[in-house]
Amino acid sequence: MSELKENSDQQLAQLRDRIDQIDGEIAQLISERAECALKVAEVKKANGQNALYYRPEREAQVLRRAMERNQGPLTDEEMARLFREIMSACLALEEPVKVAYLGPEGTFTQQAALKHFGNSAHSRPLAAIDEVFREVEAGAVNYGVVPVENSTEGVINHTLDNFLTSNLLICGEVELRIHHHLMISEITRPDAITRIYSHAQSLAQCRKWLDSHYPNVERVAVASNAEAAKRVKGEWNAAAIAGDMAADLYGLKVLAEKIEDRPDNSTRFLIIGSQAVPPSGDDKTSLMVSMRNEPGALHDLLEPFRRHSVDLTRVETRPSQSGNWTYVFFIDFVGHRDTPDIAEALKEVGACASDMKVLGSYPRGVL
């Protein structure tokens, strides 16, 4: 028995020595990468280039390659997350990216911002989607992060409406798996809960679970899940529905995990900025089109895409601000606007539309 233990201890010691050796090699390579990032910044400054330190298409390509090279046992998502943080830290040496997101702290939008830009970005929570657009337009931040649609509850109309009057472009997208938890504070009495706070979208995404477990409890919609988490800190008879980040931030206890009605519940977020993004090799394009109110208008809008084999991924309709009973179409499709077939399709759509605005071509979300 002692011999077995001795062999086991030797194996563990050898493995730990190897891990220490690998850690040293990783640290050296990360330092070399950071040095290269600093040299990139020096070259850009020497050439008088406009401070485009963050390149969405370049970062997307790096993340895709990291996942393609991944041989396990880490998942592709974990590998991409590790590389994202390395890139975020290296980019901060050149010029930290300033990002505004729909706050407050602890929301899923903050989680999406961290997933896309990493923890080294300078992020700022704002109270409304309009404010995020305004901060980016004013140049106070480089980019904004706003929600645009949920797989259960559909599109976030307020985000689409802001594009009607904004000249900002979509520079990227993030898809986030959304897990909702029921949480309470240290003063909450679990057997005496009379109200549950959450954002209206989250309450809707957990409707069946709430009907089954808390059918007679009042459901109170608030501005955000983080606001819900904050409220229950001072109420002995209340609970909140929010995500992991809010539970950690406000020190709440999770009473029930993953209570969303659909296990594949996810939300798509848009990255908005002022710069057009070159092709990355795997892109999407978003378009806003106003059509004349006449028979066959929708057919005329969609026909060029069919003819040029453009894969539409979403078509959404919103009332126009120019008059009653006129509508604007928001369209997403696979590909970059600079691709010849897509450029030709856009040209044909523009010819039959009363107004057309390309909201941006950008890398497809990486996991």
TrEMBL record:
<dbReference type="GO" id="GO:0046417">
    <property type="term" value="P:chorismate metabolic process"/>
</dbReference>
<keyword id="KW-0028">Amino-acid biosynthesis</keyword>
<dbReference type="InterPro" id="IPR002912">
    <property type="entry name" value="ACT_dom"/>
</dbReference>
<dbReference type="InterPro" id="IPR036263">
    <property type="entry name" value="Chorismate_II_sf"/>
</dbReference>
<keyword id="KW-0511">Multifunctional enzyme</keyword>
<dbReference type="GO" id="GO:0005737">
    <property type="term" value="C:cytoplasm"/>
</dbReference>
<dbReference type="GO" id="GO:0004106">
    <property type="term" value="F:chorismate mutase activity"/>
</dbReference>
<dbReference type="GO" id="GO:0004664">
    <property type="term" value="F:prephenate dehydratase activity"/>
</dbReference>
<dbReference type="InterPro" id="IPR002701">
    <property type="entry name" value="CM_II_prokaryot"/>
</dbReference>
<protein>
    <recommendedName>
        <fullName>Bifunctional chorismate mutase/prephenate dehydratase</fullName>
        <ecNumber>4.2.1.51</ecNumber>
        <ecNumber>5.4.99.5</ecNumber>
    </recommendedName>
</protein>
<dbReference type="InterPro" id="IPR001086">
    <property type="entry name" value="Preph_deHydtase"/>
</dbReference>
<keyword id="KW-0456">Lyase</keyword>
<comment type="pathway">
    <text>Metabolic intermediate biosynthesis; prephenate biosynthesis; prephenate from chorismate: step 1/1.</text>
</comment>
<dbReference type="InterPro" id="IPR010957">
    <property type="entry name" value="G/b/e-P-prot_chorismate_mutase"/>
</dbReference>
<dbReference type="Pfam" id="PF01817">
    <property type="entry name" value="CM_2"/>
</dbReference>
<feature type="coiled-coil region">
    <location>
        <begin position="5"/>
        <end position="32"/>
    </location>
</feature>
<feature type="domain" description="ACT">
    <location>
        <begin position="286"/>
        <end position="363"/>
    </location>
</feature>
<keyword id="KW-0963">Cytoplasm</keyword>
<dbReference type="InterPro" id="IPR045865">
    <property type="entry name" value="ACT-like_dom_sf"/>
</dbReference>
<keyword id="KW-0057">Aromatic amino acid biosynthesis</keyword>
<keyword id="KW-0413">Isomerase</keyword>
<dbReference type="InterPro" id="IPR018528">
    <property type="entry name" value="Preph_deHydtase_CS"/>
</dbReference>
<dbReference type="InterPro" id="IPR036979">
    <property type="entry name" value="CM_dom_sf"/>
</dbReference>
<comment type="function">
    <text>Catalyzes the Claisen rearrangement of chorismate to prephenate and the decarboxylation/dehydration of prephenate to phenylpyruvate.</text>
</comment>
<feature type="site" description="Essential for prephenate dehydratase activity">
    <location>
        <position position="267"/>
    </location>
</feature>
<feature type="domain" description="Prephenate dehydratase">
    <location>
        <begin position="98"/>
        <end position="274"/>
    </location>
</feature>
<dbReference type="Pfam" id="PF00800">
    <property type="entry name" value="PDT"/>
</dbReference>
<keyword id="KW-0175">Coiled coil</keyword>
<comment type="pathway">
    <text>Amino-acid biosynthesis; L-phenylalanine biosynthesis; phenylpyruvate from prephenate: step 1/1.</text>
</comment>
<dbReference type="InterPro" id="IPR008242">
    <property type="entry name" value="Chor_mutase/pphenate_deHydtase"/>
</dbReference>
<feature type="domain" description="Chorismate mutase">
    <location>
        <begin position="6"/>
        <end position="98"/>
    </location>
</feature>
<dbReference type="Pfam" id="PF01842">
    <property type="entry name" value="ACT"/>
</dbReference>
<dbReference type="GO" id="GO:0009094">
    <property type="term" value="P:L-phenylalanine biosynthetic process"/>
</dbReference>
<keyword id="KW-0584">Phenylalanine biosynthesis</keyword>
